Each structure stands twice: as structure tokens, then as C-alpha cells.
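re: ur question from yesterday

yeah so i grabbed the chain u mentioned. its 390 aa long if i counted rite. heres the sequnce exactly as i have it in my notes:
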Amino acid sequence: MFLDVLSLLVGFLSLFVVLLILFNQKPNRITNGYLIVILMIVGLQRFLYGLEALDFANNTYSPLQKKPLLAFYIVPVYYLFFSRLIYGTSALKKELLHFIFPSALLVINLAFADYTVNRSLYLFYSAGYFLAILFMIKKFIYRKNPSMLDKISYPAIKRWVLIMVVLTFFLIVYSNFLSFQDLSSRMDLSSFYRYSSLVWFVLILYMFKNPVIIFGELALLKNIQSNEQPDFQIWAHKPLKAIEEKDKIVYQTISKKVDAMIIEIKTMQQSPLITAKTTLNTESLAKKLKAPKRHLDFIFKYYCHYSVNDFSNLVKVNYALSLIKEGYLDRYTVASLGEQCLFNSRFTFSKNFKKFVGVSVSDYIGHMPLDPETENIEQAKNWTPQPPMA
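ran it thru and got these C-alpha cells back, copy pasting raw so excuse formatting
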């Protein structure tokens, strides 16, 4: 009874996730069309089974149970899911080639009602696809020279890949186990639906806990935005002004990449390992992002609230603030802090600090607690300098 209810719940949740993905306005490689197909297959099969098992409906139609040959379609769907996940988009015409063989088998089965597929054929067919999936995963794990965006999304994608490959392995093992038991139209999949629902329930909970799986890089972007200091709002995600005629060619080239490039820039501007060694401007960013400098010039012109020079100085000031909060000035001088943040002189450092923070370095330090036992420690910790008036 419990597993039947769980099957119905998993069916509903799977279809609900499909709706969330479909309403996501920006496509991404983590959530691709083949994941939607997989979730629809999982959701519909278990939802229909749950309705029938709990006596909410009689004789619900389960395509896989009526036509076991449809399993030959499911295997390449999983393969193409991993291909899209690891490599990104691919040519649809090439992907459709994977469904020629299953379609031929289905046509033969419909033409000759007594025709059944040799069990060993499905075994070699599914095992071959699984080995191809493992080969893709190996290349993904040991790839070279990933982009900055790939680096920040890599952990989430890697976990998702490993979870899905384990699920795919058990799916192939269990489907072969069933095929060697019975490949007729009378095959009973109820036990498969019931026990596999436990696995899918955990997997769906994992998807809700990690929205990057459902919403892709857009979720990463929102996460970075939530961590950005509101007083130093740097980036816009729509052009700040009308695109000039001379820049429209560049806009057409990178319009779909703008959000991803901004994510990469934000990642670098918030990384102490980078800001401690590199002045971030269009030249240095172009090298690190492996992108043409004119693309960076375009992004700063239309999507950044600051000029390139002000952006560079603001990143340095943000780094200085983080060092101050870590107690840097307890051991070193203000001049040393300016040098650490790559300013050419103490004067330049002080000028830019006051420009962006609104107060001098000494005034800022004066608002910070000198003694951890002071009465207003929480107030001092939460004190935030106000931005200067425009």
C-alpha cells in the first residue's frame, strides 16, 4: 500500500518538475529536452500505475507493459541525455539516427504480430549504450582547460552525472532481468514501478534541493546576485541603454552568452585568489575568459553600471573591505593594504575607497568594534557604509 501511494506521488512530482522546467524561460544544458522525456516517462508510468493499484481507475494504459519493445527507445534517450548534459547542444538530425533501429524493430513487430526480439539482442544493445555513456563521463571528468562558468557549475553537474549514471545502470540491469524473465505482452511491471519509485523519490528531492538541476545556470546567476553587496550593484541583466547601430553585430553574436559571461566575471571579481593578483579590466578578462576583447567592451558598455576603470577600482575596494573585516589592519598599515589590493599609491587607494564606500578608511575602521566584548558589537558588525550620492 505504501509503495503504491509512493508511486502515485512520484508520478505527480515528476510531472510537476516537467512543468517547472518547461516554464523556465532560459534553456540550459543541465536541464535538457531528454531529461524532460525521461521525467515524463517516469511520471506517466508511475502515475498510471498508482491510479490502478489504488483502485482510482481500472485498466489504465501502460505503453511499456503493452509493448515491451518500447524499451529500445528509452535506452538511447538516456544516452542522449548524458550527451546533452556533458557536451551541450547537438545536431538534432544526428540524434534522431539513434531511433532508427528501435523504430525498425517496432515496425517489424507491428507487421508480424508473433515477432519477439531475442533477449541477447537487447542485452548487447543496452550494454553498448551504457559503455558509450561511461566513455563520455570519463572524458567529462578528465577534460582540460574548462571555462570559468564550467568551473563553477562543474561540481553540481558532476554530482548529477554520477547520480544519473548509477540510476541508468540499475535501470539497464533490471530491464534485462525482466527481459530474460518474460518479453511478452503479459509482462508485469508492478514490482518495478513500486521499488524504483523509492529511488526516484530520493532523486526528485535532490533535484528540489539543487535548483541548478531544474533551472541550470540561471539558478547560479540568482545565487551570485543574492550574495552581491546591494550597495555595490555592478551588473544589469538587460541593456542599460539602446544598442547603437555599430554594436548590433556584436550583440547578435553574444546576446545568448551575456548572462553566462557576467556570471564568469562575477565569479572572478569575488575570488580573492584572482583579485589579489590581477587587475580586472577588459584585457585581463579577455585572456581569462578566452573571449575577444570587443565582446568584453560591449558588455561593459551596455550591462555594467560603471566604466571599466571604475569597475577595476571597485573590485579592489571590495577586496580591501574583505581584508579589513578579516583583521588585516591589525597587523599591517593602510599603505600596505592599498598595495595588497594592487593600488599604485596610498593616495589612489584612499581616494577610491572614499569614492565607493562613502567614508575614509580611518572612519570606516572607527565604526568597527575594537573589543569583542563591547556592548554594541552586533551593531558594529552589521554596520554598512552608505554609497556616495551620485
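noticed a couple things. The chain has 21 helices and no strands. also Confidence is low (pLDDT under 50) at residues 224-231, 370-390.
anyway ttyl
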